[in-house]
Design brief:
Layout lengths: L1 H28 L3 E6 L2 E23 L4 E6 L6 E2 L4 E5 L2 H43 L5 H41 L1 E3 L4 E6 L6 E2 L4 E18 L11 E6 L7 E12 L5 E8 L11 E17 L3 E5 L2 E7 L5 E6 L3 E3 L2 E4 L8 E6 L10 E4 L3
Length: 373
């Protein structure tokens, strides 16, 4: 009986000893594995992207320059027009009569000038003859002076006739121009925003006829955050894509940054100018503008490696050469897609934890599995 009790006691002690040793053995066996990636600098074109809306390069109200009836209206709202394309035809009958009258007056003035030139020619001959006769005392001084006075009068009449010809010629030009104004054309490539007249309507000079948007070149305008303004400057190239024109890309140039900050949104206006030769970009179209603001080498860190966020800094885990985890908190320069970018803060070749066991902390000993490049 005593021997049985001793055996039972020894068995219990052996069991407890085995139980105490097994966790230690488990701890030795369960060293966590982590996936690491070597931090390296890579060249990357930093891009700033923002939404924008197409707006006309200019909006032009086209008025009538002459009075008359609207005989034909060729364009309607929404129509695309090219420079010098006809929009409207005003009745030319009265204008044509005015032109013909101006031409007739011009011919009459020329005829009058010709007649005065003939008179002048004769007056010159008479004055010369009078001087010759005065030298031989064949006529009196008074008669010679009368011939000279007639010459001066003839010269004055020629001067008046020449002025009348110039006036008549200007009236012809004015009538011709007024006649041309009856054909109303677009001054720019663009789109008709408003048609303000109808066929048969009588218009007077300065009556608004159309509002046309100048859409070649074209502006697209959006806004960026105040803190991003320093990255942009006038003249930077931009790439523009439109929702309504899938598969097409347009090249532009920044034409304006600012000049002021919106006090409510704390954003700054950015305007890009681009060619629209095909006139397929219409005012109001939404688009996305992409500008390459910097091209340089960055430390590119997969965003999945970020363990925590502390204010503007992100927390990353790295592994020392001895296999021990340590923490690094850095402020990223920017994020794009699946990457977070840093200008500095690392040494090339640093082992960054990008995956593996989540049950690790600062000081943890880990087994390293290096991610293939």
């Amino acid at each position: 009986m005593r021997m049985s009790a001793i055996c039972i006691g020894l068995f219990a002690l052996l069991f407890l000893a085995c139980k105490n040793e097994s966790p230690q053995e488990d701890r030795k066996e369960k060293v966590p594995s982590v996936l690491v990636e070597r931090v390296q600098k890579r060249q990357w074109a930093r891009k700033l992207t923002f939404p924008a809306t197409a707006i006309p390069y200019a909006t032009i109200t086209i008025p009538s320059k002459v009075a008359g009836d609207c005989q034909k209206v060729f364009k309607d709202e929404g129509d695309i027009v090219k420079e010098n394309e006809i929009l409207l035809q005003i009745d030319t009958r009265d204008l044509l009569l005015s032109y013909k009258q101006a031409v007739a007056n011009f011919e009459l003035a020329k005829a009058s000038l010709d007649a005065q030139m003939t008179v002048l020619s004769q007056a010159e001959k008479d004055a010369k003859r009078a001087q010759e006769l005065l030298q031989t005392n064949s006529i009196t001084v008074a008669e010679a002076e009368k011939a000279s006075t007639a010459l001066e009068g003839a010269k004055a009449q020629v001067g008046i006739a020449k002025a009348q010809v110039a006036i008549a010629n200007a009236q012809v030009d004015l009538a011709r121009r007024s006649l041309s104004y009856a054909t109303v054309t677009s001054p720019v490539d663009g789109i008709v925003l408003k048609k303000l007249v109808q066929k048969g309507q009588v218009v007077a000079p300065s009556t608004p006829l159309f509002v046309v948007a100048d859409t070649n070149p074209m502006f697209v305008e959006g806004s960026v955050e105040e803190k991003q303004v320093s990255m942009l400057q006038k003249g930077l190239e931009a790439r523009v894509t439109f929702d309504a024109l899938p598969g097409k890309e347009f090249s532009g140039v920044i034409a304006l940054v600012g000049p002021d900050v919106d006090e409510r949104t704390r954003t700054v206006r950015v305007r890009v100018v681009l060619q629209n030769d095909t006139l397929e970009i219409a005012p109001g179209m939404s688009c996305v503008v992409e500008v390459v603001v910097a091209k340089r080498d960055w430390f590119m860190v997969p965003s999945v490696a970020i363990r925590d966020q502390k204010g503007e800094e992100v927390v990353l885990f790295l592994v020392s050469k001895e296999g021990e985890v340590f923490e690094k908190a850095l402020k990223p320069d920017f994020r794009e897609g699946l990457w977070t970018f840093f200008a500095n803060g690392f040494e090339e070749g640093d082992l960054l934890v990008v995956g593996g066991s989540k049950d690790i902390g600062v000081g943890s000993k880990v087994k390293i599995e290096e991610k293939s490049p």
